[in-house]
Specification:
- The protein is mostly helical and 192 residues long.
- It has one domain: Jann2411-like fold (Orthogonal Bundle), CATH 1.10.3300.
- It is built from seven helices and six strands, in the order H-H-E-E-H-H-H-E-E-H-E-E-H.
- A hairpin with an 8-residue loop joins strand 5 and strand 6.
- Helix 2 crosses helix 6 and helix 4 packs across helix 5.
- The radius of gyration is 18 Å and the shape is globular.
- The structure holds zinc ion (ZN).
- The site of zinc ion has 8 residues, from loops.
- It comes from Ktedonospora formicarum.
């Protein structure tokens, strides 16, 4: 791998940043919880903000449900990038959502081709997100997008480490918390 290619992994690619942002509309538990997208109005503002929906297009409760289904299915897939085991449960959800989210190939003036939604509205936004996931799987960046191994966090992060071995969104915060929990657990077991 050349230095220039390594340099490309310093930050999450723009196309995957939106997928990461979607997953991170929810993470953490208790007082560390972060929660967005609790109403169709919030979802509309979020999608418009990321250029996935045109201003004024309708967003229903059903749309919100489907986007949250996609978010949690993607979180499960990203967990597999840390735990190296493929969970079958999100696959059915993803296939179901993808079947209603048609994509087409579009070639640009610079000769590049991209996948674009072939449908308007929130269906198009779902198609766009699914297209970004698929494209990242092909170009090799997908394996670097992960969710934090600390089960009370589960925040999506982009692993920039050379050997792709990162498992915490933050070693200082989540890595040490998990280790402290494991230590307490071990000492409890030892006392029993
Ligand atoms: Zn974390």
């Amino acid at each position: 791998m050349t230095t220039r290619q390594e340099g490309q992994y310093k930050a999450v690619p723009e196309s995957l940043a939106v997928v990461q942002a979607l997953v991170n509309t929810q993470y953490g538990q208790g007082r560390y919880a972060h929660t967005e997208l609790t109403s169709p109005e919030q979802l509309r503002a979020w999608l418009v903000g990321y250029g996935l929906l045109k201003e004024g297009e309708p967003v229903s409760e059903g749309d919100l449900r489907r986007v949250l289904q996609l978010r949690e299915a993607l979180r499960s897939l990203l967990r597999a990038n840390v735990e190296k085991e493929v969970l079958t449960s999100p696959i059915g959800v993803l296939n179901h959502l993808a079947s209603a989210a048609p994509l087409k190939v579009r070639f640009h003036d610079d000769g590049r081709g991209t996948l674009e939604p072939d449908i308007a509205g929130v269906d198009g936004a779902l198609a766009s997100l699914i297209g970004e996931v698929f494209t990242a799987m092909i170009n090799g960046t997908w394996g670097r997008l992960k969710v934090c191994r600390y089960e009370r966090c589960q925040k999506a992060f982009y692993d920039t480490s050379k050997n792709r071995s990162g498992v915490w969104c933050s070693m200082a915060r989540c890595g040490s918390r998990q280790k402290a929990r494991a230590y307490r657990h071990r000492s409890r077991v030892a006392q029993d």
